[in-house]
Design brief:
Layout: H1 19-37, H2 41-48, H3 55-69, H4 71-89, H5 102-105, H6 112-115, H7 134-140, H8 150-155, H9 181-186, E1 193-194, H10 199-206, H11 213-219, H12 225-239, H13 242-246, H14 282-297, E2 327-329, H15 338-346, E3 352-358, H16 359-363, H17 367-370, E4 375-376, E5 382-387, H18 391-404, E6 409-414, H19 419-422, H20 434-447, E7 452-457, H21 467-477, E8 481-485, H22 499-509, E9 514-517, H23 523-530, E10 536-539, H24 541-545, H25 549-555, H26 563-581, H27 585-602, H28 604-611
Parallel strand pairs: 2-10, 3-5, 5-6, 6-7, 7-8, 8-9, 9-10
Antiparallel strand pairs: 1-4
Length: 615
């Protein structure tokens, strides 16, 4: 191997080849391929021309002049190719639309201590990363959106102060917040929104220091799925029936071997330990529970006490859900927020329910998930909907809500068709997981003092109905009501709801109330639905398209609502949104976001007017 010069790689002699030899090799390969493919002589002649360059390079050289001549034409073609791509990107949800994102306004946020006019009490002191100079903040603040602040006009005080996007309506000299004392006194002591998450409870949830006594007692009798299989689960579910668990609800109190924490000290997390894989026999279970109850009965008490702490309410003693024939606003994800529910309540909705909340997120103390449970004081009959796939999380979450918030009922979501929920075993998947479904219903019904309802679909597959098999079991497990959406998971929200099948299921559910849901867009649809024998109707997309449908059903008429009235509805929603999410930049953007989500449904009412003879 000879030494190479600078910049030349060392190559073995057997790999060296001249340019002529390389092109001769390519020529021979081309001829052999042409003969095999029986190509025309003209193609063979064209392939043998100019053998001094490789074919790939020759093609580039031959096309170079044409490319240079037609450069301007290619630019035009490229621009035309870009146009359809831009149109494709704009289809569906336009995530790149101009909007105010949190990272845009969090750079120059004002400290809360300054907003509340107590800057000297800033917890972080000199290390605070927010602005403390009001003048500096006002220099970079976005311009106000109007001269009237709904919070100041309604409650006499805007808690957002200088950060309000309508601040000039209530700012005085030196940016001081003006307060209307008369209005403040009128609202003093009146909670507008309930079921908020306190900081103390959030910290206890995050540190896992919340004790679930009733849930732990129930779950301790369930078999372990990993060791017992389906048979063990079924036995465990049966062993925790109404008769067996009725006497097993005595509180542990201060019996022998049980430590009592001093007042003010937080209780540790309750650990659920199952010593045996199989569920205990019913007689052993009853005897052990009776023994615990006898120990508790010997406790010494100070002063009069009720038996509420010792004896669990029986199913017949629970508060009943009396909503026969009432109009039920369905729990709507994203659009079924508190301002929208206030709109529907004003138009005649009798029963409202919060958006679907994931039980695991609630147990972790996530503020965004707890916000879905908030209840306005105008919602006189209100419930929350929970989603989960396992009896431990669902039972603990039900017990937590039973102790911390004010609700009239709890609904289990067994109708969610979303893949993210379905693949984890929640939503519609529970209809195929009867053992877990039973354990969830029995456990939640045991720990709740309010009625338990279930919302299901016809089934998972389009032509395989399951609801008629599940509904009798739901009644037997202790649920107070079931709501049936007349579509399967595969149908999602397409095709027509099967109200004939809903009528069959209503007969099977008796005496348990069954509400029907699907394709109720006018009062005629509501009348036809009630003739099927259901106890009531749940309205979902019909309320999104026209929230005044509740008035139409109650007054039995079509309401040809004017454009001014529809615009007033949007203004009311805006005011409700500013009250709920705030009148600062973040609250304004949230209100705009949810109003645009709702408008995607509301505008379709105009299409219905143009295509329907009656509407």
């Amino acid at each position: 191997m000879e030494a190479a010069g600078a910049g030349v790689a060392l190559i073995r002699a057997q790999y060296l080849i001249s340019k002529e030899q390389f092109h001769a090799y390519l020529k021979a390969e081309r001829k052999s391929r042409n003969q095999e493919n029986n190509q025309d002589d003209g193609e063979e002649d064209s392939s043998s021309n100019d053998q001094t360059e490789p074919p790939a390079k020759q093609m580039k050289l031959d096309g170079g002049d044409q490319v240079r001549k037609q450069g301007s034409q290619e630019e035009v073609v490229k621009e035309e190719e870009k146009k359809p791509q831009e149109r494709k990107r704009a289809r569906g949800q336009n995530k790149s639309r101009p909007c105010m994102k949190p990272n845009h306004y969090e750079k120059d946020r004002l400290c809360q201590s300054v907003i509340q006019e107590c800057a000297e009490k800033c917890y972080f002191g000199s290390q605070c990363r927010f602005l403390h100079d009001v003048g500096e903040y006002m220099a970079v603040k976005l311009s106000d959106l109007g001269d009237s602040c709904v919070l100041f006009n309604t409650f006499g005080k805007c808690i957002y102060g200088v950060t309000c996007r309508f601040a000039r309506a209530h700012l005085g000299e030196d940016y001081k917040n003006i307060i209307n004392e008369d209005l403040v006194k009128q609202w003093e002591g009146k909670p507008l929104v309930r079921n908020s998450l306190s900081k103390e409870l959030q910290q206890r949830l995050r540190k896992k220091k919340v004790c679930f006594d009733k849930s732990s007692e129930y779950l301790s009798h369930l078999g372990k799925p990993s060791s017992t299989g389906n048979a063990g689960n079924k036995a465990a579910g049966n062993s925790t029936g109404e008769k067996e668990m009725t006497n097993c609800t005595a509180s542990k109190g201060n019996a022998e071997g049980v430590d009592v924490l001093p007042p003010g000290e937080e209780a540790p997390e309750c650990l659920v330990v199952s010593e045996k894989g199989e569920a205990p026999e019913s007689m052993v279970l009853q005897s052990s529970c009776l023994a615990d109850a006898s120990k508790d009965s010997t406790l010494k008490t100070i002063g009069p006490v009720t038996d509420e702490d010792v004896i669990k309410l029986r199913l017949c003693e629970k508060k009943r859900l009396d909503i026969q024939g009432k109009l039920y606003l369905a729990p709507l994800t994203t659009c079924g927020n508190l301002p929208f529910r206030r709109i529907c309540k004003r138009f005649g909705a009798d029963v409202t329910c919060g958006e679907m909340a994931v039980c695991t997120n609630l147990l972790q103390g996530q503020s965004s998930e707890w916000a879905l449970l908030k209840r306005h004081y105008t919602e006189d009959l209100f419930g929350v909907q929970l989603e989960g796939a396992f009896p431990d999380t669902m039972t603990r979450c039900a017990e937590l809500l039973n102790q911390t918030i004010e609700i009239d009922f709890v609904d289990i979501n067994v109708g969610c068709p979303i893949d993210l929920v379905y693949k984890k075993g929640g939503g519609c998947a529970l209809m195929n997981r009867s053992n877990k479904f039973e354990q969830i219903v029995r456990g939640m019904n045991l720990v709740l003092d309010v009625p338990l309802t279930v919302k299901i679909r016809t089934g998972v597959q389009e032509k395989v109905n399951l609801a008629h098999k599940v509904i009798p079991n739901i009644r037997k497990w202790g649920a107070s009501m079931v709501t049936l959406h007349g579509r399967s998971r595969e149908q999602r929200y397409t095709k027509v709801a099967d109200w004939e099948y809903i009528a069959e299921c209503a007969k099977l559910a008796s005496p348990m109330p069954l509400f029907g849901n699907g394709d109720i867009l006018s009062y005629e649809d509501a009348n036809r639905a009630m003739q099927t024998g259901v106890s009531g109707i749940m309205i979902a997309r019909g309320a999104l398209i026209k929230p005044w449908i509740f008035t139409e059903v109650k007054e039995q008429r079509h309401w040809d609502i004017s454009s001014n009235e529809r615009f007033d509805i949007l203004k009311d929603f805006t005011n409700y949104g500013l009250e709920h999410w705030g009148s600062d930049t973040q609250g304004v953007e949230k209100t705009r976001k949810f109003m645009l989500e709702w408008l995607s449904f509301l505008c379709s009412w105009l299409i219905g007017v143009l295509t329907s003879e009656n509407q």
